[in-house]
UniProtKB/TrEMBL annotation:
One GO process term, biological-process aspect: protein transport
GO MF term list: structural molecule activity
UniProt-listed InterPro entries: Sec13/Seh1_fam, WD40/YVTN_repeat-like_dom_sf, WD40_PAC1, WD40_repeat_dom_sf, WD40_rpt
Superkingdom, taxonomy of origin: Eukaryota
Family: Belongs to the WD repeat SEC13 family.
Matching Pfam families: WD40
GO cellular component labels: kinetochore; lysosomal membrane; nuclear pore outer ring; Seh1-associated complex
Family matches, as Gene3D superfamilies: YVTN repeat-like/Quinoprotein amine dehydrogenase
Species whose genome carries this gene: Oryzias melastigma (Marine medaka)
Entry's localization field: Chromosome, Centromere, Kinetochore; Lysosome membrane; Nucleus, Nuclear pore complex
Alphabetical list of SUPFAM superfamilies matching this protein: WD40 repeat-like
PANTHER family (UniProt xref): NUCLEAR PORE COMPLEX PROTEIN SEC13 / SEH1 FAMILY MEMBER (PTHR11024), NUCLEOPORIN SEH1 (PTHR11024:SF3)
Name recorded for this polypeptide: SEH1-like (S. cerevisiae)
Chain positions of WD repeats: 8-40, 273-305
Amino acid sequence: MFVARSIAADHKDLIHDVSYDFHGRRMATCSSDQSVKVWDKSESGDWHCTASWKTHSGSVWRVTWAHPEFGQVLASCSFDRTAAVWEEIVGESNDKQRGLSHWIKRTTLVDSRTSVTDVKFAPKHMGLMLTTCSADGVVRIYEAPDVMNLSQWSLQHEISCKLSCSCISWNPSSSRAHPSMFAVGSDDSNVAYGGKVQIYEYNENTRKYGKVETLMTVTDAVHDIAFAPNLGRSFHVLAIATKDVRIFKLAPMRKESSSTGPSKFEVQIVAQFDHHNSQVWRVSWNITSTLLASSGDDGCVRLWKANYMDNWKCTGILRGDGSPLSASSGQPISTMVGSSLLSQNALNGMSAGR
């Protein structure tokens, strides 16, 4: 049984993103009201807003947490063409501040000439690295050479994807058998431009990221993309939020021992669901990659699970107002009004300003 609880978010405009920290005890939200809010979970399970501040001069599309190994660090990106890195400081400067935390801006990344549509930290085994993608079709990878000084970031890679970018996801695998890899989605609405998802991989010889795969069957605008945690698999699993939910399997083909070229993949679509009957805005995996959650314009969060035969089924539905719905129920569902964070239904207006 899945239980939803509603939170009065008090954002003054659409909420575009909700992000949990590594432990799931903290949450950040961002909105078109140009602010980010940080929420902490109490022992009783209630969420309390512990920080709220104006971050950008335009709609804030995404917010994301760094691994706690690097401290309490957030990154945000905005329509104002910038991304920003924020760090929580526990004040000790005077008695009034002692024990109180506040968030300070460590840096603003200003390389993009258009709206910055997504921002993600790389997996922690790569060090403290931050990736942005923009409507100008460029992915930028930054590194903080000194994790104790987050005001210094150097631009390591600039990768042109040729299509306006809407979302990005790193493959979390830390296996040496898998080079660093990320996927980029495009919300370009022109169906004639096939392949709205591109996969890039790091090449040790050229020291650059090169495109190794384009998912040509994805021709509709992509709103979100998420690699599943790897957990020792030899292949990768990628979830895509477009006009439906799709799950792809990317199996690396065997290389010749002398080959140093880019990986080749056998691409297979393992599941496709149009149960939302509408645009799907977010997909998110649990930590063991056994459960996928998706949210869409029908005002619902749907949960997907695979059985031992690798057949995916819907195992639960949550309406925006928090009332559960049996997975077999097919009746139309009214769209939520208000700010229940769980359904993330406020994400519906995300593309409006991009």
